[in-house]
Amino acid sequence: MPWTKLWLASSAGPPLASGPVSREWRRKIGRFGLGSWWPRPEQAAAGALDHLPSDQWPALAAKWHAAGFDSPLLRQLAELEIPPFDSGSSARNRTGGWAAPRGLVLSDQPGGIHARFAAIGQAVDLMPEVLRSIGFDPAPADEAFVARCQSALDVVQLDLDVTGYGQYRMRARFGGWPASVLPTLPDGSYWGGTEGMGREEEGSGLLWHAADLVSATMKEIPEIEWPVCAIHGGHPGSIWDGEEPAHLIKKVAWWRCTNTGHPLAPVGQLTAEVAKTL
Ligand SMILES: [Zn+2]
Predict the structure, then answer these.
(1) Whole-prediction pTM value?
(2) Neighbouring residues of the ion ligand 1, judged by CB less than 5 Å
(3) At what angle do helices 72-79 and 112-133 cross, to 10 degrees?
(4) Which residue ranges make up each domain of the chain?
């Protein structure tokens, strides 16, 4: 993703500087090592926050304030204190930055973890309001992202319909951080045990992921193996075994026979000849 280019292109923003940045905020800015790269508000509203852990959002808000953006909500987020995972000696080893989640380390302080999660929840709730308050609405980018995922699910839906499983209408469900989309059944149930579709996915890769997620959702929730080869059937042992049903073959998303592995049809082009119908 060409963030550098975006950053350069957007360096002439509309903000008006107001007031000095407090020492406290400067400390916060330095604490996480955001360094010289950090998403501008317009980039954040377009999805760049997907890659910045939400415990760093208060520091980011302080950066935005230092760059001249201002609103009461922005100040509120900048002032939010997020307790660290660990308050013991290992706290000295924190380097912050872009590392993967460190995993849970039990806090010395009773309720420390809960306080941390509560504060992170506040940051997640505040951020869209903060962005709107300084003129950058994240809703259009999020809606476009969800619509893109729904379009992929609609292609997979053609295959559900043609095989007689049309009652399982898959809706794109937008969730949390990092932002992702999972297929959801009409009763609102979804399977959260795997990674959802990401904002950066597109084209045949997105369609493959949508197909894989729909098949996984069918398996995990109504416990149905779908789709199944008309000739070989599913895995003879159990629906949980066998080949992965969705594959990317030469940049095209295909269904495969879960029993023997041969290609069935491109996703969206199943027929009653190649796949079992209800
Ligand atoms: Zn087969």
Answers:
(1) 0.74
(2) 229, 231-232, 257, 260
(3) 160
(4) 20-87+108-136, 140-266
